């Protein structure tokens, strides 16, 4: 049972992952929801943490129900018309003074404290916070509460009560740990949001490959579902995901469609490839002709040496995907890496023809630069990924593979319309 009126400690720093794992009823607290979305939270990131770290309870935390709960929480608290996408309308007046690194829940009010029905819950045994939990927060997802729950579960003869004994138990296990940037809501929720979207892509790619009659993805390049972000913390493995989308780039969700005009009449076509990487709308995109390539070099020069290879092999050996055998496969680390050592793009194999993700398009663009101009300065580092995506966006550059995929989808939709 979720205790929606279980009070928060009078003074405590709780990460987003800790709240969602041990206190999921906190999503019925408008202060919690406001904090998450003021710090870049998304419904996908929130649901990803809950569905990964907690056992399902009668479908209570499906993605749709999770979203409905967020809306209901905010609207009952007086935020009429609130949705995840327009939270900024309520936050903009205090955004300049908002401190994203503040993890304190001091003063957070439960639903019954703002006039809703019910009475304050608790106190409850600290160990009961582990009920329904299948995976504890790990790495930077965890701070003080994770240590406290772990201790309480491992010492059942000690009767610690939540939230009454919060300060006492924390001192008993060594005192609070100082939070860092990696503990903030933005860092954690964006990490989980990327993980959810990446796994969504993998499922789509695998389904697409299984349905394809013209090509089958080889065993050496098949994307594998990645481990949860709890298992991929930066200090353990530098395999965090990178979207490759420059800030300010217009976005569409994969399911969204944009209407375009073609010589064959009006059809419904999508110009958004996977993960919302968007190319500009064009009235005759079916007649697209790629512009002549122009030289584009990276702003800094990085040399790859044998030490980089050895370091990457160590990481790859620990976290490799079984079907991938080379560190230079585009899927060796699922996509581009966020932490060094960074691979040179001209060393990386070309992606599968059916892969039209932003990462795959960046690789094809870099391969063209290497083939035509001998450019060997681009790497998979986040800054280079953003710059290449910007180049592609400004040039309206798409690969033959992307265009073939677009044409195929356009024809399929046109057949459906007709």
From TrEMBL:
Residues 212-237 are annotated as: Disordered. Residues 212-231 have a biased composition (Polar residues). This is Uncharacterized protein. It comes from Aaosphaeria arxii CBS 175.79.
């Amino acid at each position: 049972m979720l205790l929606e009126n279980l009070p928060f400690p009078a003074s405590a720093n709780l990460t987003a992952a800790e709240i969602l794992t041990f206190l999921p009823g906190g999503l019925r607290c408008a202060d919690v929801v406001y904090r998450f979305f003021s710090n870049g939270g998304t419904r996908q990131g929130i649901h990803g943490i809950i569905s990964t770290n907690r056992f399902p309870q009668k479908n209570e935390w499906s993605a749709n129900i999770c979203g409905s709960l967020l809306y209901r929480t905010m609207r009952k608290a007086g935020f009429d018309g609130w949705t995840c996408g327009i939270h900024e309308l309520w936050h903009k007046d205090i955004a300049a003074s908002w401190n994203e690194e503040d993890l304190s829940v001091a003063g957070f009010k439960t639903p019954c404290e703002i006039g809703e029905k019910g009475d304050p819950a608790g106190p409850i045994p600290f160990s009961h916070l582990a009920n329904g939990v299948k995976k504890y927060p790990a790495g930077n997802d965890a701070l003080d509460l994770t240590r406290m729950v772990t201790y309480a579960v491992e010492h059942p003869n000690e009767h610690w009560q939540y939230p009454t004994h919060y300060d006492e138990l924390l001192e008993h296990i060594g005192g609070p740990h100082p939070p860092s940037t990696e503990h903030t809501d933005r860092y954690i929720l964006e990490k989980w949001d990327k993980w959810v979207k990446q796994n969504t892509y993998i499922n789509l790619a695998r389904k697409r490959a299984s349905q394809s009659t013209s090509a089958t993805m080889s065993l050496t390049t098949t994307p594998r579902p990645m481990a949860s972000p709890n298992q991929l913390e930066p200090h353990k493995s530098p395999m965090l995901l990178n979207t490759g989308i420059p800030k300010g780039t217009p976005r569409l969700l994969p399911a969204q469609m944009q209407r375009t005009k073609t010589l064959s009449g009006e059809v419904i076509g999508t110009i958004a490839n996977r993960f919302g990487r968007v190319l500009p709308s064009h009235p005759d995109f079916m007649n697209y002709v790629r512009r002549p390539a122009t030289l584009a070099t990276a702003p800094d020069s990085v040399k790859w040496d044998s030490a980089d290879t050895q370091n990457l092999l160590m990481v790859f050996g620990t976290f490799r995907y079984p079907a991938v055998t080379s560190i230079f496969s585009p899927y060796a680390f699922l996509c581009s890496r966020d932490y060094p050592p960074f691979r040179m793009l001209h060393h990386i194999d070309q992606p599968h023809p059916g892969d039209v993700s932003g990462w795959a398009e960046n690789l094809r663009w870099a391969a063209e630069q290497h083939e035509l101009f001998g450019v060997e300065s681009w790497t998979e580092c986040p800054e280079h990924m953003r710059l290449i995506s910007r180049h592609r966006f400004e040039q309206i550059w798409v690969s033959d593979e992307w265009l073939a995929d677009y044409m195929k989808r356009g024809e399929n939709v046109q057949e459906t319309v007709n």
